[in-house]
Write a structure and sequence with these properties.
mainly alpha; Butyryl-CoA Dehydrogenase, subunit A, domain 3
Length: about 190
């Protein structure tokens, strides 16, 4: 089964199955941990990569996350979806690893590009997005990544970040304003 993008987008049966799989992890079932990994590695890695700005660091944090899930699966109480709980674990692991680490600085690409973008230009565009996200304060970057790349609802983001829904909305509003400022800087 390919990784999904959001707990909300998955059918209720699949979400219940996630709960059973996590309960099996709590009972020490390594195959269940592998099943969770197969379902959620993609979205969790994308989230962690956007927070860390570095593939290697994101991979290390993902491994830290799986270890934390293995150790703490028994603490899951079902108050949120398993996917939301997993994003919360990943976020805590990222904060532990990234505390005090400045965001990565991206090199500025050459602006003499062909009007029709090829693979190199598309890669540069992705690098610009990554570099722009890295300029956001971590609190705003988390919300943007969870909302637009993790496809989580405001409520789910609030659960992952352990903040009120209003704070999620406020951070998204400020992040959009900051991103607009960055975009204006690049066009002027």
């Amino acid at each position: 089964m390919p990784p999904h993008r959001s707990g909300a987008a998955r059918p209720a049966r699949a979400r219940r199955d996630d709960g059973r799989v996590l309960a099996a992890v709590a009972d020490g079932d390594a195959a269940a941990l592998t099943a969770l990994y197969e379902r959620y590695a993609g979205p969790l890695f994308a989230f962690l990569y956007r927070l860390a700005g570095d593939r290697g660091t994101a991979e290390e944090i993902l491994q830290d996350t799986l270890l934390a899930v293995w150790r703490s699966a028994g603490t899951y109480r079902g108050r949120s979806s398993v996917s939301t709980w997993l994003f919360g674990v990943a976020r805590r692991q990222a904060h532990n690893r990234l505390r005090g680490v400045p965001p990565p600085v991206a090199a500025e690409p050459d602006d003499g590009a062909d009007p029709l973008p090829g693979p190199e230009e598309l890669a540069v565009g992705q690098e610009r997005v990554r570099a722009t996200l890295a300029r956001l304060p971590l609190a705003q970057r988390e919300v943007v990544v969870l909302a637009f790349l993790g496809d989580l609802s405001h409520r789910e983001i609030a659960e992952v970040l352990e903040i009120p829904v209003g704070t999620v909305k406020s951070r998204l509003h400020h992040a959009r304003a900051t991103l607009r400022e960055y975009a204006d800087e690049r066009t002027s």
